[in-house]
Amino acid sequence: MLPRENPFASHRIDALPYGLRGGSWRELIGQFEGLGRRAAVVGPRGSGKTAFLHSFGERIRDRLGVNAVYVRADRQDPPRNPSEMLLLLDGTERMGCLARRRTLAACSRAWGILFALHRPTGATPLYRTATSPDLLYDLAAQLATGRSGKISRETLDRLFLRHGGNLREVFCDLYDRYADSAPSTPNRPA
What we know:
This protein is α/β, with parallel strands linked by helices.
């Protein structure tokens, strides 16, 4: 199987829309504005914070016409003139204090800032991401649609537990399983 054909290739996972639980994007945008356009999406590793950032940015652009810019804060500098932008900051927790301070100072003039954090340290939570075996099962079914073989619920439950609910790690594991197996046998034992 070619890497791009693997149902768990990163470009396929990144293309999945974030499935908002409870409420609506319109309500979240209203809450975000009510928080002075400074807030955080909070959740454990592999729970969809980055996917949420991208989906939220698309909704802001479509609804308010504001350009949303994704910034991997621990790997790149924020834009120089962010006053007309919503900055979607991912990775600030991996920065040192000085780098974090510089990044926050550079972003202080932004139209809005939405942080992805594991804990709501210093930022008001707008939304909390979470995973569950049911969510994993739904996402895996969407990704493997039309592929040979279906991944058993038992296999997915086992992977969910093995990776502590981190869906990113589960999808990496599933990618390897598909890459290592013949197209007709994607369900090798865990």
